Amino acid sequence: MIYVLSVTSPIFIIVLVGYFATRSNIVSKSDIQALGSFVIRFALPALIFRSLSQRSFVEIINLDYLTVYIIGSLSTFVLIFASARFRGRSTTASAIFAMGSSVSNSGFIGYPVAVLVLGPPAVVALAMTMMVENILMIPLGLVVAEVGCNHGKKNIYRVFHGVTFRLAKNPLIIAILAGTAMSLSGLALPSALFRAVDMFAMASGAVALFFVGGTLVGLRVTGMMVDVGRIVGGKLFLHPTMIFLALFLVPSIDPTLKKAMLIFSSVPVVTIFSLLGRPYGQQDVCAAALMVATIISFVTISCLLLVL
User: Fold this and answer.
1) 186's torsion region: left (phi>0), alpha (psi -120 to 50) or beta?
2) What angle do CA 215, 220, 223 make, to 5 degrees?
3) Which residue of 7, 70, 82, 213 has the fewest CB atoms within a 10 Å radius of its CB?
4) How far apart (Å, rounded) are the C-alpha atoms in residues 155 and 176?
């Protein structure tokens, strides 16, 4: 238990520092957003690129990992979507809730936890997790939400093409592709450029956690507990459970990667969840789900690490 707390406590201490620093106006909400942009556009892409470019292609693309994570995430999406529709929620709202339950806060919380537990392999697991999230799960959620919003009148191919085009400009996707290309080429960056990338990468952990704390300031849950509970329950309990069950389909997978999948699937909803839900009028419930999931995850992640 002491070991588990030594892993989780520093992470949530930094989140709390970010929360209270923002709440007391030591930093402003606009400062927090700037920090988030720095992490998502520079620090995390640098971290992913640095790691992938230094590894062989076989290490980077692990089909067993991708298969298990896709099956577990899709199963979670389908179950939460069906549950919300059964309870009378619209197709659009159900798609957003399902996306929140199946897409993790991989970069801001998942990676800091995983690297403390697993060390260097956590970065490769982060890259593969983000492939599934950014290439499959987020586009799937947005396409279904868009189709529901337009009552099926808009051509699904055009919707998917538009979503995919926007995500293709995501710095994280670009970093994954660039790092993979460097790995395949066998080339290395000039030492000065590599050190610059390394410095950006080292800034990712603490700044990301500080940002998460700052984003929680001002969020409210009033009147949304049923939907918030569905999303939070799906993310913190159903998602890791479905990943765990999917692992039985590929029993030969590396034990370190098994732990990585369970860690990444157990963390709260993605930080940009409210931004993804905003065009569909779901920003309030998305923001509330982020806050509740982040608070509860201190306990759930600690419990998971006890059994890993």
Assistant:
1) left
2) 150
3) 82
4) 30
